[in-house]
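cron nightly-structures :: item 1 of 1
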Amino acid sequence: MITQRGLMESLNDMPTYEPVGHRGTRNVRLINAEENGLFELIHGIIEPGGAADRHCHEDSYQAIFILSGLADVTLGDGKPRRCGADTIVRIPPGVDHQVVSLGPDPLRLLVAYAPPLERTGS
């Protein structure tokens, strides 16, 4: 029998972390690798002027759904593209990407990785 204990919680009660190579970012793991092993779901907030500096994930597909705010998103060798609420960004494994929060409000997003990222620190 499955109980509700641990299956429902408030985002505000969950621990936050700032990934390596990110500035002005607060992430919360909503679903982590230990829970299901198939994918990872993150809620992220990037303050105005903050960024996920250019990087790539060699083995994971990444999808970003922008909940609110404004960002310049760069994929591969492309030029930055202005993205706002309700934008979906799909990033195949091995594609360099960068996300810069433009403000004036924080950028709020959901990020999914499949398979989950290997953790190096937090």
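cron nightly-structures :: done
Strands lie at 22-31, 40-55, 61-68, 71-75, 81-83, 88-91, 97-101, 107-114.
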